[in-house]
Amino acid sequence: MARAPAFQLKSAEQGGEILRWIDENVRELRKVFESTSKHAKLLRVVPFLVGRTLFLRLEASTGDAMGMNMVTKGSLEVANFVCKQFSVDLVTVSGNLCVDKKASFMNWIRGRGKYVVAECVLAESVVHRVLHTTPHSMERVHVAKNYIGSSVAGTVGGNNAHAANVVAAFFLATGQDMAQVVESSHCLTQIQRLTSTVDRKGTTDSLYCSVTLPCIEVGTVGGGTGLAPQNACIQMILQQYRNAGANGQLSDSQILASVLAATVLAGEVNLIAALSSNELVSAHMQLNRGTTS
């Protein structure tokens, strides 16, 4: 998780002095930051000097909590410490380089929360039987929609079919911060047709599918996760994950982020298949409309 205080300096020259000091005193800043919480661990201090304004992007691990309040508290302590060292003014503890609840290349590149990649390979027979389409057709729709269409539209983190739908539903069910759907649904979907030789009669296609989500902001403690229905949903997900004998090295919040990414992947495959088979409208009419008497 990240927070980025903004400071007003006397000059850009003073900014250079502070940058050199930060380089030499990261351990001290870490000690100040971590004095505010037994769970928060300061990982990096990333400075951005813009004229006489200095931003310090403080990136920290926060255990199983999403950790926004935790990181804000530590960031304020660090900001006050810097102000005392250099007699500069703290303009705001949150200077928008965090970047919280906004689409941004900063989060896309540096990440915020959990960085997760989920992938699968579907046999051609499965694509035919279950999804009613072909690997070639799905790849074609994916390129036109998620790559070309999203590029022309100028989206940030939007090279996907509908990741936000799945993220929003998951956030509601598990008590996450709904406004953080904005950046948590940043997603790059990949759908690639693979050709492999089966026998002398010819070849068959398979389909590689993946989603990359660089800033999933979820927690299993704190905030809305303590509400009874949402907590029950979280516990069910964690228990099912463990019952499946999956990776036992993951923390609870990492498990939650991994399950979310897998669910996004399923949603991406489903929608691209529906578009390539031209079943989207008919499916909505059949499944998403109530009957009237």
TrEMBL record:
Pfam families xref list: HMG-CoA_red
A single GO cellular-component term on record: peroxisomal membrane
EC number(s) stated in the UniProt entry for this protein: 1.1.1.34
Oxidoreductase is among the record's keywords: yes
Pathways per UniProt: Metabolic intermediate biosynthesis; (R)-mevalonate biosynthesis; (R)-mevalonate from acetyl-CoA: step 3/3
GO BP field: coenzyme A metabolic process; isoprenoid biosynthetic process; sterol biosynthetic process
Top EC class of this enzyme: oxidoreductase
Keywords on record: NADP, Oxidoreductase
GO molecular function: hydroxymethylglutaryl-CoA reductase (NADPH) activity
Superkingdom field: Eukaryota
Family assignment from sequence similarity: Belongs to the HMG-CoA reductase family.
Name this polypeptide is given: 3-hydroxy-3-methylglutaryl-coenzyme A reductase
Species: Lygus hesperus
Gene field: hmgB
